[in-house]
Amino acid sequence: MKRQQAMLGISLAAALVLAGQGALPHERAVASASTLTIAMASDAVGLDPQAVEDNSAGFVTSTIFDQLLEYKPGTTNVGPGLATGYTLSNSGKTYTFTLRQGVKFQDGTPFNAQAVVQDLDRELNPHNKYYVLNEPGVASFISFTYGLVTSYKAVNANTVRITLSRAFAPFPASLAMVWSSIMSPAAVRKYGALGVLQHPVGTGPYRFVEWVKGDHITVDANPSYWGPKPHIQRIVFQIVPEGSVRVLKLQRGEAQIDADVTTRDYQSALGNAHIKILTQPGQTLNGIGMTVDVKPLNDPRVRQALNYAVDRQALAKFLFKGLGTPMNSYLPPPVPGYDASLPGYNYNPIKAKQLLAAAGYPHGFSITLLAYQNPRGYNPAGGDLAVAVQQELKAVGVTANIQLMDFIAFLHKTRSGSYHGMYMTGWSGDNGDPDDFLYELFSSQQIPVGNTDHLRDTHLDSILIQARQETDQGKRMQLYRQAQQILNADAPWIMGTYTSQVRLTTANVHGFMLNPAQMFFNMNNVTLS
Q: What average pLDDT does the segment 406-420 reach?
């Protein structure tokens, strides 16, 4: 099934305040020991995890929803979730899940096999009245996770069987992504496919209360949660675009977690006894994407030249201020299969000019570079990355005209399939598997939403398909090493850096744990002193 994407936000913007179960006064709640405020740079696109592909949305929905399988705290190692376990049969093509009993959705609807099947049907059945991909604005992982599914059925009240057309090694890891969350079927019927973007109902530790567009999203503790009950009774996700303001709010006690830390704010937090800095190696990439289907970017010599023109060591040291390391591959080091032996592209502006001349551009060229300002987990420098690369390219005769956009508008444009030029890009891993980087970002099947470069390499496609089906991990990793070599030659991005994941908290936050997917999983374990 091919993933579709269109413009999202027009319908959502029509309602300033989107209220869910339980009313909340419109004035901002005062922070207390039972209220935790998370400051984040951007608003969510929508709150149906199966219809969005945006980290800000994931931050919120990871507190509202559960998945059949879940990542163990702080890792992408898969363990039980709404399913207590599964068996594999039929040569790796059939998964039979045993469901957790006694679980209810936040609207009181029982969680059972029929609920799972109904949720799968709205994702996979084009004839379903609530089919997700029929709605405007969908940028979804549905085809990535469920594209090989041929059937799904409730064996009994507590057992679900999902059959694939062929073996798919990353399937369990993908089921644990926040984007594979299970939505209440009663909520879908009540609000409709577009309505649940504004009224999410899951089984997670927190339930949706209110969304004031551009200002905040509030969730309250779910008293009927099947797992350990939340300590904090309310979480407010507050939209604070300016990084220095987010840090100031932490210093004043007006917020307790900064979700989108800039390099400047990381530096300012060093040595501040009132702010804790949490870091872990990031499963992240950043750089400048290039649409490879139009001149001059359709010539690999041009793309290689632009890579030689950029000094990644300088980016890591001066722009990312110690939070970044130079990219040499399109897989980050913490992800299995990463090939440290690849040379990448060393800084060589003379070679860059030679390649440009050989491609017919001895005097360079002018091109648009789309950018956004706010930091991302994979890019704590925000729009400064575009400015830094612009200066590097200027030295080899390439004029990059920066066009700054709101982040949501930026996503719509780069994922539309109609944009041609350069743009800031990056990725944070969702499931800890190399498939989530190499297939999601560079398979021709993922054009235009995942593969925003429009890269079509039949040899690469063949290898990525083989790697998805291969169950022998050693053979899979060998295939991914081949894929990295091909991509380095294709050069669809100007490589940037790998970055560390960073979050800032106030000193009174306890039990908060980073995870490689950067989501706010396990918030029921967090306390405030």
A: 93
